[in-house]
Amino acid sequence: MKSIELDAGFDDKIFDNSNSENVILKITKNANLPFAKRSNFALILDKEMENVPAGFDLGINFLTEKIIKNAINLSSELNYLSDGDVIKINRTSKRVRVLFRAQSRFNFFLLTERCNHYCLMCSQPPRDIQDDWHYHDVMRSIELIDRGAPFIGFTGGEPTLLGDGFVEIIRKLNGWLPETSALVLSNGRKFADPNFSDKLASIGHRDLTIAIPLYSDVSHIHDYVVQSDGAFEETIKGILRLKERRQKVQIRIVIHKQTYARLPQFAEFIYRNLAFVDHVALMGLEITGFTKANLKDLWIDPVDYSEELESAAGYLSRMGMNISIFNHQLCTIPRTIWHLAVKSISDWKNNYEPECSTCSVKSNCGGFFTTSKGKTSRAIQAQI
């Protein structure tokens, strides 16, 4: 999520009861919360309030620029904050980050920026840094999220580089939010270790999916895309270990110039060798991160691989596998596979082009990444 600077009204005394320079709080608009519950909440003030009611750690003021003790003034950029959202405030940098949005379907927590891959099209370029604070933020946030939240995702970097810390996050999620579905974006290699897979499986999470990228049926192509020798073999082992332990696995295939040509053969490989996976996602390219630097080696107009996509998706669907097409505009793919396309782009980075305003199928179309401005298919046009 985005960080922004706090406006006038920031008061260091807000954090007097904190042992850290950071505080993580849940948003509420209810000034009448029982006093015993208030310490975990930031209260959104209404225009009549001249002070923050006793017990609340923080007040949030959107309505005026007046200074209110123990309150911060936030710009309209964050006026979507509402009951159940979770925020983090840093008293040194005077910045606020939104960690969780109760009304969003696309809540993902970044667990680390470290990774053992260096993918050509990585949207979150890895950094070899000490960032264990992500772990503590997530563990605290889980305690604040409303029970019944439908979904939480975890991403990186590579989340499993946290080792047992990753397992503890899933364990805590299962204990505090047992009704919440979870998705972990992982390269899958750590799960080749049977002891690590055993630890994850022992939690018994009712609806946890590990989404693992696989880019080809040919090992050297996959290894080239992820820039790591031996990655293909270890990833396959990771998938097998997880399924041996009855864990849900999704295979993700990002389609670009290095991967599109063998999509039909890759689909057959998946059915013959990995038919037991729970979901296969064929994904369009997001032009951000490393993709920008490697664009000439990656970009291909989706209409130019439409035959390969139709063949692969159609084959897997006919074979009875659970197949979806992510991150594609309907006008760029054959109508025969429109029923497989889903709206998968997170709401905070999803947009539509002017041509889409009169399109009859816009409500069913995945739209565009706002991060991919300036590179769209020549086939974009409103469907009548």
Write the topology of this structure.
Layout: E1 3-5, E2 22-28, E3 41-44, E4 58-61, E5 71-73, E6 86-90, E7 95-100, E8 108-110, H1 133-144, E9 151-155, H2 164-176, E10 181-185, H3 194-203, E11 208-213, H4 219-226, H5 231-244, E12 248-254, H6 263-273, E13 279-283, H7 290-293, H8 295-298, H9 306-318, E14 323-326, E15 350-351, E16 368-369
Parallel strand pairs: 2-3, 3-4, 4-5, 8-9, 9-10, 10-11, 11-12, 12-13, 13-14
Antiparallel strand pairs: 1-7, 2-6, 6-7, 15-16
Helix pairs in contact: 1-2, 2-3, 6-9
Q: Could you walk me through the main structural features you see in this protein, from its secondary elements to its overall organization?
A:
With 384 residues, the chain is of the alpha/beta class. The chain folds into two domains: 3-100, no CATH class; 108-347, Aldolase class I (TIM Barrel, Alpha-Beta Barrel), CATH 3.20.20. It has nine helices and 16 strands. A seven-stranded mixed sheet has the order 1-7-6-2-3-4-5, covered by helices on one side. Strand 8, helix 1 (133-144) and strand 9 (151-155) form a beta-alpha-beta unit. Helix 6 runs parallel beside helix 9. The protein starts with a strand and ends in a 15-residue tail after the last strand. The relative contact order is 0.09. The model is unreliable at 1-19 (pLDDT under 50).
